[in-house]
Specification:
Structural class: alpha+beta
Strand order of the largest sheet: 4-5-6-9-8-7
CATH architecture of the largest domain: 3-Layer(aba) Sandwich
CATH topology of the largest domain: Chorismate lyase
Number of helices: 8
Largest sheet: 6 strands, antiparallel
Radius of gyration: 22 Å
Distance between the termini: 33 Å
Amino acid sequence: MTVPKPNSRVLHNSIDEKLPTPLYHQIYVLIRDKILSGAYENGATIPTEKKLEQTFNVSRITVKRALDELAKEGMVTRQRGRGTMVTFNAPVSSSFGNMDGLLEDMLTIVKETKVRILEFDYVEAPPQVMDALKLSPDARVQHAVRTRYKDDAPFSYVITYVPEDIGKCFERDELKSQPILALIEKTGVSIARARQTVTATLADGTTGPALNIGIGSPLLKVSRIVYDESNRPVEYIIIYYWPGLYRLNLDLSRMKGEGSNFWTMNMK
């Protein structure tokens, strides 16, 4: 890929003083979107502070704060005399159509990332978990909270619940080196399928600091219930991803038939 020259791509002046969102944050979002879309590739130098001042007709302080926010998230590095350079790496991508693909993808992610375990205990299943795992009111579950890192930057905040009888078969430290699906399968459970929901949400006082992003920043929330071959739910997992470091790839096929205007997922 050709690294764009400094100032080779001009940002359009699309900020609005009438919006309640601060101007610096509007500029931050515009530049971040350019980085995430690949318009500013890794290693590229983005326009100078002076150029951004002129482009958006704002003060140097406003521009500086926007760039500082990008630097805080690890999107860019700033060096006196050299400008602001993009340091964002390609997203960790997740693509799967069946449980074998999901497990294979997770094994790849484990090899490329590190885990910090924030919580690990056994608790009575909260109502939502009890419903998801089809448990009795007094049932206990293994509860774990982890943050996963790539290149020292956090990209996912993971909460898992596993029925106590399954969870007791592996230890806290094993979660650092193996995906929880693999640990569950080692207990003799044969995983068959999963039901997953992906929604948009905002970082709160827990997920924001854990992912090193501001409260109110956009997040992807993935909720998944995993079932074994007897249709028993064996895991309930909630994952919060910063969109800049995660994407979901799906293979789609055109449905056959006269006048068909629909797509279907390829399930292997």
